[in-house]
Amino acid sequence: MDDDLAVREGLSELLLSVGLVPICFASTRDLLESGALDQPGCLILDVRLPGASGLDLQHRLAAGGNSKPIVFLTGHGDIPMTVQAMKAGAVDFLTKPVRDQALLDAITIALERDRSQRALARVTQRNAELFETLTPRERDVLARVVGGRLNKQVAFDLGISEVTVKLHRSNGLRKMEIATIGGLIRAWETLPAHLRDAATSPST
Q1: Which residues contact 66 (CB under 8 A, 6 or more apart)?
Q2: What average pLDDT score do residues 70-92 get?
Q3: pLDDT of the residue at 65
Q4: What is the rounded distance in angstroms from the CA atom of residue 181 to the CA atom of residue 168?
Q5: Which residue in 4, 48, 44, 6 sits closest to 22, CA to CA?
Q6: Lowest-pLDDT range, 2-16, 34-48, 61-75, 116-130?
Q7: Using an 8 Å Cβ cutoff, are 185 and 172 in contact?
Q8: Ranges assigned E (strand) in the chain
């Protein structure tokens, strides 16, 4: 995204030449109204834009939970601005004029990050949906198993028999489509924080 038409056209030609499909915008408003943020890909942003700046957009996306990878490409950057953008998660902060290969390398990294984030998001969503099929007691038991508690300790914690603990643990793992405790721990780490926190709260 750049407010300079010539820059947008040059970037489009470069990206098309390597098989990528760019969508160009002149302002943050145009981008936000387009729906393009929901599509796979990354953002190439100038710092200075009509209306909200590129840095403003970065902050807005982060606040909204959108981790779309961003490559800044600007003729107006300085060290504090670069540090600010990189600390906020930018893939790179490049200054114009930039070598084509340097830009393409940054875009390659950004696209790979986007693919990884989307893959993780799919896993997170699936695990969360499976977790929500568990009964409250199955969640209680699995939360304590993840915390390293033994069956007899879980039984004592919850005031139930060890046999009942084993039953709830077995049912919970089956519903989560998990075969091992190691798999449970890995799946647990992908769950949204509110689900983990609810399952491990003292009131459960």
Answers
A1: 37
A2: 86
A3: 83
A4: 14
A5: 44
A6: 2-16
A7: no
A8: 43-45, 70-74, 92-95
